[in-house]
Structure prediction request, 643 residues.
Amino acid sequence: MKIVVCIKQVPDTKGGVKFNPDGTLDRGAMLAIMNPDDKAGLEAALRLKDEYGAEVTVVTMGLPKADEVLREALAMGADKGILVTDRVLGGADTWATSSTLAGAIRNLEYDLIITGRQAIDGDTAQVGPQISEHLDIPVISYAQNIKIDGENVIVERQYEDRYHVLKAKMPCLITALSELNEPRYMTPGGIFDAYDAEVTVWGRADLKDVDDSNLGLKGSPTQIAKASDKVRKGAGEVVKLDPQESVNYIMSKLTEKHII
Amino acid sequence: MDFSLSKKHLMAQKLFRSFAENEVKPLAQETDETEEFPKVTVEKMAKNGFLGIPVPKEYGGQGCDPLTYVMCVEELAKVCGTTSVIVSAHTSLCIDPILTYGTEEQKQKYVPDLASGRKLGAFGLTEPGAGTDAQGQQTKAVLDGDEWVLNGSKCFITNGKQADVYIIIAVTGTIEKRGRKMKEISAFIVEKGTPGFSFGTKEKKMGIRGSSTYELIFTDCRIPKDNLLGKQGKGFSIAMHTLDGGRIGIAAQALGLAEGALETTIKYVKERKQFGRSISQFQNTQFQLADMATRVEAAKMLVYKAAMAKATQKVYSVEAAMAKLYAAEVAMMVTTKAVQLHGGYGYIREYDVERMMRDAKITEIYEGTSEVQRMVISGNILN
Prediction:
């Protein structure tokens, strides 16, 4: 079995968030980590590899320094790493990103593609399903459990209060939740091997069947009007009431705000 | 000269740091309080390859260098002195001598199990009457047919009772050197469960309280002739060379303890308010922290340099001795100042610096006291 895992290097939320003048993230200036949902997707792929045997290829699009998350993935047990990087791909929104990743994946053989549900920087949850559309394969999102059954994959898709069990014929795409599993640590030896390994670097010219109009900032239908770091919330409201009245007050506020 | 770490070392550091924070730190206080060996943590470290970091892959290890191993001990010690010494004693004092002096059969038999963490290692040199004076050994090994018969005892043995494989130093006879009769000392590999090998009392210690420190007792303990490690009569130099490596591990432990105490204190002084402002705004606090940070940095340079020396030089006794001497004294100085800057809270067991100060003291004592390190260093410069 061949599994492709798409991962993204995202800003470490522990560090500060910095923006470019055009409102996009200044990724070069921030501490970076592997996106948590993607890491769960990678772990899911590695567990399938442990159980059924598989070749796991990780793909990322990003700056040259995104090489770090590929090495991390290799140190966890992935077999191959591909970095898609090119100036013309910069400033991509979800559409341009999924077009790029699909263009890269068209060069690969795969039975399964696993992506994270969403990245902690953009929070859109669009790239995974869009890739499946570009490649014309089924998608099962929000996976909380993945099993292989012959030519099929059986996935539990999470909902708020239940889950659906879905069966799809491979090749298909699955988007993973960080709750799916507890990702393994790298091993020290794995890290040494990862830095001895060669990471494949692809540019625009290596993408298959993608039009320029779908790439980079120019190919991005989304325009960012304004971006900012987390805005500090107000001081809040302090109310001194007895327990029963407090409960009633909180319930009325939650109802008022349509939270319940 | 480049003082920066390579990308792979930085990534390894990130790994050790996240493991220490997530898996080790939450248990550090409980491990100290209960004085229980952190078995579950050791199993997790085994699973992640931490028990065979500088061991070649052909023997089931991770194939990394001594610097990576040192960084692992350092990061563990930042949050838990106990956990760090388990790794150090196992790796430096048990696996290393087998790799360095063992026959191919011995390496094949013992190292893969040790490096994968399926088995834990320990080292027995110290005896009640033979501490710094390691020549004062009383434990004897007599060859009887195809077996060595061991009699005697060892004390203060780290990983005692928890370990499966023990490197034991014992007297195998007498030799004449420059007209003087001296003990002939040899090294052996002894497995737990061998008849005649038992454990005495568990020591109750000031610090590193979760580390299992036991007396080992040998009563007509018969081990195969082939379990002699290295050549007969070379036990003393094997022990000393092993301790050179061990001292780099302990130096890393001391460094980690100092760094942990410093980090904890930096956080604390920013939060703690007196006279209407945080105590970090007082010049006394600032100057204390400046001294602590400078010494930690100097200790780190010596420890990393010693690790690099182990990777590239045949003899690294002086580098190891300097690293251990300095890092241990820095650990004691920094943890003591950390307690002082915490004031009354620093004396309370709920606060990590209290434990760190108790843990730090042993680094000036075991695997050669600071006085022994000074003997090694001065002996070399006056030679």
About this structure: Residues 235-271 of chain B form the longest helix (37 residues). Chain B touches chain A through 19 residues (CB under 8 Å). The first strand of chain B starts at residue 121 and ends at 124.
